[in-house]
Structure formats: C-alpha cells, structure tokens
Amino acid sequence: MSNLIITNIGTIVSGKIEKPILKGNTIVIKDKKIVAIGGSELVKDYKDFKMIDANGTTVTPGLIDSHVHPVIGDFTPRQNTLNFIESSMHGGVTTMISAGEPHTPGRPKDPAGVKALAVLASKCFYNKRPAGVKMHAGALILEPGLTEQDFAELKELGVWLVGEIGLGGVKKPEDAAPMVRWAKSYGFKVMMHCGGTSIPGSSTVTADDVIKTDPTVVNHINGGPTAIPPEEIDRLIDETDLPVEIVQCGNPKAAHHVADKLKTKDQLNRLLIGNDSPSGTGIIPLGILRSICQISSVSKVSGAEALACATGNTARVFGLQVGIIEEGKEADLVIMDTPLGSIGKDAVGAIEAGDIPGVATVIIDGEIMCKKSRNTPPATRNPIY
What we know:
alpha/beta
C-alpha cells in the first residue's frame, strides 16, 4: 500500500464546480486516501513517504467516463479491440460507469438472463480492474417481465445501476416509469438514452419521453450521435433539474449549446461528460479529454470547470468517493501539463486553447499506474520521481 506525497504542484484542480482551483502545492496520500492538501511545509511531516516533485505541472482528479459499454474484461466485440480500458487510462480516465452491456454476444433478453448478466459483469469488474481502472459495471438493461422483487434481489447482490433505457425491450415511458420507481426505491442510479437512433434496432427518445420516465441521468443529451432538436434540449434543461450528459460520440454543436446554456443559467453542476464508447462511432481513448477541450475552447466554460464536469459532477451524481481532490477522498489523480508546442501556459490553459494536455502520470488509489501517457502529446514538463 503506497504512501505518497506530491509537491511543487503548479495548479491543483479540485473537481468541485463551485471552487475549481485549490490553494496549495502539495498533496499527501496515505492508505489509498488523500489525507492532506497544503503548502510545501507538509513535506517535513511525511519524510518517509515516497515523493513526486510535480515540477510545476497541474494535478487534477482522475477523470470519470460516465458512459461506457463494456462486456467482460478489457475487450470489446463491438469493435473487436483489446485493452480499450487501459488505453483510456492513458488518457487520464481512472473510473468508468457502465451504461449497460448491450454488446455482449448473445445477450439474454429475458428477466432471469438480464439479471444474471448484470450480476456477472458487476462482480467480474469489481474482482479484477483492468489497468487499475474502477469500472462500475453490471448496469441492468430493462426488459419486459422484470418485477419489483428483481430489483430488491439485485440490490442485495451488489448491482446498483440501470443501463440507459432504450437499449432493451422496455422503451416507452408507460412501461419504463414503474420500473424506474422500483429501481430508485432500492437506491439504483438510472440512465436513459436521449436523441435520435444510433444503431439499427435503436429508437428515437424525445424530451417528453425522458420527462415522463424521470431517470437519474439524461444520457448523451447531445445525441448518440444524433441529437434531439435544440428546443427539446432546452425543455430538459429548463423544465427539469436532471443531470445531463454530453458525450464525445455525439453531436458537437449540440454539446456546445448544452454547455453554454447551463453556464448561462449557473447550472454547470448538472453537466456530466462521457464517451459513449465502444460504439458504432468507435473507441476514443482520449474522448473525455477531447470533450473537455471542446467545450472549454468553444463554449463559455473555463478549463477548470470543464474538468469538474468530468470528475466531481459525475462523482456527486453517482455517489462515488472519487473525482474530487479533498481530504478523505480516494487518491485517484492525474498529473498533466501543457503539451509541447501549445500556446497554453499550463494544462488548464492548453484545454482552454483546445489542445489536449500531456498526461504525465496517472495515479489510482495512491499507486502510479503510468508515467508519460502513450496516447496524449508529450507534456512540456514532467514530474521528477
């Protein structure tokens, strides 16, 4: 179990939308948790800890992908690709949330089968984390015939997610809403597809469908990849207080509309960032970083705020102890800097310029998982170990 101290940090991005930048230049990690944040005077109190000199770089919470479609292990049959989760870790992602496992070959569509798949996926990923990434899998896909007792049983077995409504046979609000109420009563977080059709067999989901169903999160409000019209997006933002998610595998114009509207309403706390990958659009290891850069460089959102949308906002909605740099939180961190050749002075400045920052180190539970990402541009400065 690693005890670690990171000092000489240029900027600490908190992950909290209401206060996205923290004072201090030192973070102390003990027994997988953040135990202190402050100035360089902390170093003398933890002399026996392993030390990282951040060399003036930026430290952020580990990024959270709020929308992934895994199967079992680090393989996706959707694009016949190995190690896509590890590749995302090299893009700064330390936590992933399944929106359902619909690409499982031969996926069962009866109540017993979908329950079994949810339990299997959940337990497999909790037992073995690919590249250390905290995959919250086993998102139940709603099919006709599920009962309230099924949700009670699944809760006892550790399942707590409902995959995006629309993936399974339950699509209409009149069928989905009762199941959503059951799920919520047992503490489940419920996701719902939004927008036009994505792949053969999918259906269009309107703002009215979402409002009548009342999920926990509106998945890919910017489409996956086809978005609902702007006036429907506005309805979901203005007439509900639901968290809304934008994804890289969605409509970029709609994503900017969502970000600007929420910023204007002072409701950026509602914005989550996901990938919606693996999908027909492909596998995008840097998808979360790309979306952060897109909304910050084109919309009215600062780089630190955009990072909070992909960290602390998601952690709050799903009840996770990650995504925020704060004493007592799990020590999942990314050390990053402006990439070579960028006009940005630091990682936040690079993001605001639209440049993917260079990921220099990824830390999960206080353990260094990678040094110098194989996927991002090289950082201008690198930590000294």
